[in-house]
Specification:
The protein has about 425 residues and is of the alpha/beta class. The protein has 15 helices and twelve strands. The strands form two sheets. Strands 5-6-8-7-9-12-10-11 form an eight-stranded mixed β-sheet. Strands 2-3-1-4 form a four-stranded antiparallel β-sheet, with helices on one face. A hairpin with a 2-residue loop joins strand 2 and strand 3. Bound molecules: arginine and zinc ion (ZN). Pfam families: Peptidase_M14.
């Protein structure tokens, strides 16, 4: 619910990015506010860049006329500071959407600790890394003709395996390939659940309809960032990055700013403690090294499409993220993205927006730009990848953000399943 109180606090001097980042870290988020900054569209990109790259704040949602941002206690004066009004102009409005984010985190923790949930259906709630791994191993054991469990494509800093799963039938010879991944960003739990849901349906539907698995092979990375993901269960629910130890003693690189494509050219932070820290060099992170190597491995040379699942805001994003220039395949990419949007809406009526990633805000070093970029295109002999980021539920106007109620796991899975089956066929038919 919108609380609607407008802050009017004295400006006590600018906080530095490092100081703000330290305040944003968990493990608790008592009195962390979610604040809506209303800004005219013509300054939106600059305000976004200022909040993200200069201040190192945690931006939750960006829309055409506002940006929602988490403000830790002690950082309120940013909102009335001169540097912000210099960028945002006098039309800036400030509205508090939630004045204590710890409350929704506590409610979630309480639910997860209640034993009734453990016994229920797998998709009744979210799960730990080790349980997700076991679930996939069981899926493979019970469906040996369709599912191959790949125990490790690389290890993390904390020694966890990044596992993969390959799903296809034994019929059909050499096939086109599709890549799905989730949980690049640790706190975006619904991204993991949705990848699991899609994996489950791929296997379950084969008995009725053999088309997808006879035509394509699905290569799935269910937990891209195991260290960060485990940290959201044990250290701080709102953690986004991996758990690399940085040069200044802070932790974490934003994996979706670390891919070797236009790395470091804007839309990422150079400050290690920042939530969008790009890392010390392009592709420096073990997770990015492991995934990019596997993406280009000989057994995956027939990849034609890839989707990176994130939350939240309900968006279907296509390349590019690094530039406002349109991709060479813009017409086809748009057609496929708009098609996903329309089919999602047909399932439960949810409105997702289909647009280019840059038009949301600029990023460099993202997975989707790398998939679509020069390195991969060349490696595949000039074949290009249909490359998408899907931002799942909820919408930006909700105040639950990353803490999505588990009752939405199955409906989210259903709308994504219903749309990406169509998308897969479109991609296979228009390589
Ligand atoms: N929200 C995701 C991130 O910040 C996806 C960004 C998609 N790319 C973009 N240029 N907006 O990593
Ligand atoms: Zn994300």
């Amino acid at each position: 619910a919108l609380i609607g109180a407008v802050l009017a606090l004295p400006a006590t001097g600018p906080l530095t990015s490092g100081a703000i980042s330290a305040l944003l870290d968990g493990p608790r988020y008592d009195n962390h506010k979610l604040v809506r900054l209303g800004v005219p569209n013509n300054v939106l990109a600059n305000v976004h860049r200022f909040l993200d790259e200069e201040l190192g704040l945690d931006i939750w949602d960006t829309q055409s006329d506002h940006i929602d941002v988490r403000i830790p206690p002690g950082a309120d004066d940013i909102l009335t500071s001169k540097p912000l009004s210099d960028v945002a102009g006098s039309a800036l409005t400030v509205t508090v959407l939630d004045n204590n984010l710890q409350k929704i985190v506590d409610e979630e923790t309480q639910r997860l600790n209640s034993p009734s949930v453990q016994a229920a259906n797998w998709f009744a709630d979210y799960h730990r890394y080790a349980d997700i791994k076991t679930w996939y191993q069981t899926l493979a054991q019970q469906n040996p003709s369709l599912v191959t469990f790949v125990p490790s494509i690389g290890k993390t800093v904390e020694g966890r395996d990044i596992f993969a799963v390959r799903i296809t039938s034994k019929t059909g010879g050499s096939k086109q390939q599709i890549w799905f991944q989730g949980l690049q960003h640790a706190r975006e739990w619904i991204g993991g659940s949705t990848v699991q849901y899609v994996s489950d349906r791929l296997v379950a539907e084969y008995a009725q309809d053999k088309t997808l698995l006879d035509r394509a092979e699905f290569i799935i990375i269910p937990v891209v960032n195991p260290d960060g993901y485990e940290y959201t269960w044990t250290g701080g629910r709102l953690w986004r990055k991996n758990r690399s130890k940085n040069s200044d003693g802070s932790f974490g690189v934003d994996l979706n700013r670390n891919w070797p494509d236009h790395w470091g050219q804007g839309g990422s932070s150079a400050s290690p403690s920042s939530i969008t820290y790009r890392g010390p060099s392009a592709g420096s992170e073990l997770e990015v090294k492991a995934l990019s190597k596997y993406f280009l491995a000989p057994e995956n040379k027939n990849l034609v499409g890839a989707i990176d699942f994130h939350s939240f805001s309900q968006l279907v994003l296509r390349p590019y993220g690094f530039t406002s220039s349109r991709a060479p395949d813009e017409a086809l990419l748009k057609k496929a993205g708009d098609g996903v949007r329309d089919r999602i809406r047909a399932i439960h009526g949810k409105q997702y927006t289909s647009q280019t990633a840059y038009d949301l805000y600029q990023t460099t070093g993202s997975a989707t730009d790398w998939w679509y970029g020069e390195t991969v295109t060349k490696a595949l002999g000039n074949r290009r990848i249909y490359s998408y980021t899907i931002e799942l539920r909820p919408t930006g106007s909700s105040d639950q953000g990353f803490i999505l109620p588990p009752s939405e796991i199955i409906p989210t899975g259903e709308e994504i399943w219903g749309s990406i089956t169509w998308w897969t066929k479109f991609v296979l038919d228009n390589p």
